[in-house]
Specification:
Elements: H1 3-17, E1 19-24, H2 29-34, E2 37-39, H3 41-50, E3 55-59, H4 62-71, E4 76-79, H5 94-103, E5 108-112, H6 117-122, E6 125-127, H7 132-138, E7 143-147, H8 150-159, E8 164-167, H9 180-189, E9 194-197, H10 203-208, E10 211-212, H11 215-224, E11 229-233, H12 236-245, E12 250-253, H13 261-264, H14 268-277, E13 280-281, H15 286-303
Parallel strand pairs: 1-2, 1-3, 3-4, 5-6, 5-7, 7-8, 9-10, 9-11, 11-12
Antiparallel strand pairs: 4-13
Helix pairs in contact: 1-14, 3-4, 4-15, 7-15
Length: 304
């Protein structure tokens, strides 16, 4: 079957079965093309919550599908590939977080959405890369224990000097591949290019960036920018999507190493399999779901 034939069959099946397909911006071009909604973690979570469809197929990684299920328990939520996880979401266990809470008893726990449901259940509020600063600025807490991504955490600390932050030293193994030396090399080669970076990048990369934002933020920045050359400091699929959307502009990956293998697992075949034979349904114990929902609801309440 050709790629186009597979896409047509997917479009037919999702219409016939009334399935909403969400695809994170890191997904392959051909997968993004058949999705109803694409974007960053925050956009996907809100889209699923407001959707009328009873079935949602999440093309992304496990925590994204879990987030949809936590917010929309009445929906049947399918993850496109059962092995697609986020290594960062597994870095800190619920037991370790419970110990950290004892060390910082007065701190509110802010959990990056890239976490398991068990961790969200122990948090006071969740954040995404696009909502973190806004959510934490509105959070009624002076002290914040930020887990697990210390890079996003320190990005927030710089913008919220009135708050006291404590960190768990976790991070995204993909974004941490990019080094300061990559910035120096790329800036020397492309002196006119703007550096657009995800806040999961190392602090020195974030500090050197012309714009820092979520995956959707980076794409939206390009849309409104007059610049013609950009160094892209996030997963390399974003540079591919941007090249496709703006063929007249130049997009240079900050590092060839910025590849999230988990996000690449989903193919058109995965989507077709899920739509034709059911796929892996996400299920959560109700007490766990309700506990995790508190921190996600708080994020949406404060994030708008
Ligand atoms: P976004 O919320 O920016 O989509 O980030 C999710 C992610 O996993 C980035 O690595
Ligand atoms: Fe997780 Fe990093 Fe992949 Fe995002 S890029 S899904 S944070 S491993």
């Amino acid at each position: 079957m050709t790629m186009r034939a597979m896409q047509s069959e997917i479009l037919r099946l999702k219409k016939e079965r009334g399935v909403l397909v969400l695809a994170h911006s890191y997904e392959r071009r051909e997968v993004v093309e058949i999705a109803d909604v694409t974007g960053d973690s925050y956009r996907l979570a809100c889209a699923a919550k407001n959707a009328k469809e009873r079935e949602v197929l999440v093309c992304g990684v496990r925590f994204m599908a879990e987030t949809v299920k936590i917010l929309s328990p009445e929906k049947r939520v399918i993850l496109s590939e059962k092995n697609a996880g986020c290594p960062m979401a597994e870095q800190l266990s619920a037991e370790e977080l419970a110990k950290l809470k004892e060390i910082y008893p007065h701190a509110a726990v802010a959990a990056y959405v890239n976490t398991t449901a068990r961790l969200k259940a122990l948090a006071d509020v969740c954040v995404t890369s696009s909502s973190a600063v806004k959510v934490l600025s509105r959070l009624d807490a002076k002290e914040i224990l930020f887990v697990p991504d210390s890079h996003l955490g320190r990005y927030c600390r710089k913008r919220l000097p009135d708050k006291i932050f404590y960190f768990y030293e976790g991070g995204c193994p993909v974004h941490l591949q990019a080094q300061k030396s990559d910035v120096e090399r790329m800036k020397a080669e492309y002196p006119e290019a703007l550096l657009l970076a995800h806040p999961e990048c190392r602090d020195e990369i974030v500090d050197a960036a012309d714009y820092v934002g979520s995956t959707s933020g980076i794409m939206d920045f390009v849309k409104t920018s007059d610049a013609t050359e950009f160094i892209i400091g996030t997963e390399n699929t974003i540079a591919e999507h941007l090249r496709f959307e703006y063929p007249e502009k130049k997009f240079i990956p900050l590092s060839e190493e910025l590849v999230c293998a988990d996000m690449r697992l989903t193919t058109l075949k995965s989507v077709l399999n899920c739509l034709s034979s059911g796929g892996e349904e996400i299920t959560l114990d109700e007490p766990l779901r309700l506990a995790a929902k508190r921190s996600l609801d708080k994020m949406i309440e404060l994030g708008g």
